[in-house]
């Protein structure tokens, strides 16, 4: 019989204080007062607000330079330049994917993240090296971080022959999801690329998550082709489109029609809510029941100097990008980093109810909105029933070199 | 003779380590090694990076609810709704401007801000009460926080008769700058309002700083009228336009022509770099030598639940909004919160050179960019030669109730 963990006086999502009992990695009781028994581990929570574990539904665990010397950013800004810069820097810098992904997982735990969907580069230069490194990290942290791996053809599929075969291999070896990006912009062959992606999905019975940076009508065209295939293969609920900047374009009638189709097909969206690009409207997605989750994308890598793995900061950025001010709206921003992420990742037993997996983040703020707007250090992070971080620091067993 | 303050081993803007001597509130010596003398206060800085004091060049010290109970945000989103909500809430909530502005100054010191330009509401409901409160705070913190007060007709000038007379009184009583907002959108009388504003400026010999939220062609029209008056009154270097969302519109030719005129007239811009609105491009301003400074705008007030008075966070938001990634670009974002703010506020002796006023912020990061991207707690904040905050906490004398 495992030891009981008793949390005293915490406010679930800002509600009135309760005690919460955790046994065998699950929440087994919630009540006004739960008496401690001999041998219980008891944590006094002093009225802190508890959120469910944060979900980073769009990450790149193999890319971060966290813990490595500062890398001066001076590459160009086109997508192709950033892709090429990274692929060559992987050789020059000592970018070990197992070590770096572990560092990011340690950091993410300290910030209260308990589930990550990570795209992982697969290309003909590096083969499956990054996939294998992140898979190693996934195994090491399996008890406390739920990691999904997307086999991601960052450098293109059709323009780099051999990539599809490597993705096929990764999916055999344990990648969870078929990735893709910009069928027009990068591969110059939308039919070829999307047929290959959905072909892999059908063959392996896996979901799809495609990066779509293409803007305006070009992106809308590619999106239509993605939706066509989702419909043809009856992949309702199994397709995510990441970024989908085209859904931020000004042609509201066109965007609304696509959103309606996305809702009907059960396609989900992932956003990072960048300030410098058009983005899908979180409110417009919610109105239609579309799951729109958020992710930190790359943090402190060769693409961007920003990022610290904090999903409460991402919730703030989602809120600012969507001009969310009212408390109910700030809660929507938080949803993109919690429940909507869990919905997209199909996490088992996610939430703050009896029977749920015990993934909780405690923050000392008077009101729920302030978890997002102020983002204080996490007082306590519990994942799978284990205390993994305290006062902003990940505990010993989950630290990384 | 005042006590000497000797800072050992700090990296000015990330350069090689030096020692810095501070006497009489000024930097008097910078050298590889400066030996301590008896009676010196010596601070070991352990290679921390020193920035000049941060400048919040667009704030609203009379509006914050910092330190007060959480206020649920549920008002509408139109400018007029937010203005009206606030004016009535000032009566309902206990919004004492002296107390609240002091709280924000205390908070801002802890984050390394040493100069603030604050717009302060003046309206016919509340008269000069907010101005008097913020003036009290300005006097109390005079040694450590350089505060400029803008007499700001938040509720309109022409639509609320009596406002111009109140602004006139505030300028007699020590307000530094003539404020304004949206001559079309709020006052519905651009000629009347701008003539009144520039009339007050001429009468009192004071600069002007006008909020311009008006978008697209409407804002461009109002902006042209502001530039016309700047030219007619030869107010080069004395006019700031805050927000200037119209300069973010898609008509590049129109925007560039206005930017050229802004540069020629020495008009400066203040931005908060909001993610949900069009904004002037920092790069386009820099190319033309236009001073573009940044501000946190209102923090945790009836308008917005966001904000924590941190100007390094604002620099990050400026960087994200402008898609700044290269180190040189991140430094531009930082400039908006440091040197450009000092230029707009015409701060005397600003900088990190011998002879400058000793306003320094120390952050423990390996590279300058990371001051912006990671925003760690400030190790030490020095203002006017005095240590005012340490490890993220403002010291006793400058704390507020």
TrEMBL record, chains A, B:
**Record-linked Pfam families:** Amidohydro_3
GO MF annotations, alphabetized: hydrolase activity, acting on carbon-nitrogen (but not peptide) bonds, in cyclic amidines
Q: Which InterPro entries match?
A: Amidohydro_3, Metal-dep_hydrolase_composite, Metal_Hydrolase, Metallo-hydrolase_Enzymes
The Amidohydrolase domain is annotated at: 103-389
Q: Which SUPFAM superfamilies does the record associate with it?
A: Composite domain of metallo-dependent hydrolases, Metallo-dependent hydrolases
> How is this protein named in the record?
Cytosine deaminase
